[in-house]
Amino acid sequence: MQDDPKPGPRGRRSEPRRCLMCRETFRSDGPHNRICPKCKLTRTWRSGGVDGTTHDLKRRI
Question: Domain residues of the chain, as ranges?
């Protein structure tokens, strides 16, 4: 039996990555998963704002 992590989506293996928010290392499911579970619980992440605000950066007033 191998100790390798299970393949993630598209056959990619999970591996340690740095969270783009807190820079802590976490076990990522693949290159699409760059925010750690702890940061995904924060108000900043849930609001959808890049800088913690709820404004839409694409919308120009």
Answer: 9-45
Distance between CA 41 and CA 31 in Å, rounded? Answer: 20
Helix/strand/coil for 46: helix
CA distances from 51 to 1, 2, 4, 11, 31 (A): 45, 42, 36, 33, 22
Nearest to 29 by CA among 46, 54, 12: 12
Predicted structure pTM score: 0.57
Place of tokens 């693949």: 30
Q: Which two tokens stand for residue 28?
A: 């990522």
In this predicted structure, the answer to whether residue 35 has a pLDDT above a threshold of 50 is yes
